[in-house]
Design brief:
By secondary structure, this protein is an alpha/beta fold. A six-stranded mixed sheet has the order 2-3-1-4-5-6. The radius of gyration is 15 Å and the shape is globular.
């Protein structure tokens, strides 16, 4: 009997941080690998500044229900997004938080990873706008949701022309942060 794989992912942050684009890129990377993917999003009442989320389901088989019911992977870039969308995580889930998020719910059996995503976008690349791509690098580097080559191709397919090199550097930085966190150096 072949085990079927369905991964439910929730990406969250503040409106304007590129969470929707990150979800589209993650779904496209899964499609590039021949998997099925469904992506959906929602925003708070404010288009910019309010909490927003994007959900992606990646599956080896058809996706019969397009909503995330129990996320097993959560990315949160802001405290507000984490408070609002960090619920419903089950044992064995992975939570990737920006290092600026102080609050932590009691999450027994949940692996929590903190990485300086927003700070790295500002301090290392001097471009806060690429925090979403750094976050994708961290998320994929830790979770292995898709292959590195697939996420890189999807990033290059989706970012505005003329920004490919900046976004490639952002993705590489995210993978570097993931490796540092995994080895305990961050």
């Amino acid at each position: 009997m072949v085990m079927q794989s369905r991964r439910e992912v929730r990406l969250s942050g503040s409106g304007g941080q590129g969470i929707l684009l990150a979800g589209i890129i993650l779904a496209e990377a899964a499609l590039l690998e021949g998997k099925n993917a469904v992506q959906s999003q929602s925003y708070g009442p404010e288009a910019r500044g309010g909490a927003s989320k994007c959900e992606v389901i990646i599956s080896d088989t058809s996706v019969d229900y397009p909503k995330v019911t129990r996320p097993e992977v959560l990315l949160a870039l802001t405290e507000e997004a984490y408070s609002k969308y960090g619920k419903g995580l089950g044992e064995g889930s992975l939570v990737v938080l920006d290092a600026s998020i102080e609050g932590e719910q009691d999450l027994p059996g949940v692996r929590v990873i903190r990485a300086p995503i927003l700070e790295s976008a500002l301090e290392v690349l001097k471009r806060p706008i690429v925090a979403n791509i750094i976050a994708l690098g961290v998320l994929v580097g830790i979770s292995q949701l898709v292959d590195r080559s697939s996420i890189e191709q999807a990033v290059l397919n989706r970012v505005p022309k003329g920004t490919e090199e900046l976004n490639r550097r952002a993705l590489d930085l995210g993978f570097q942060l993931a490796a540092e966190v995994a080895s305990g150096n961050k």
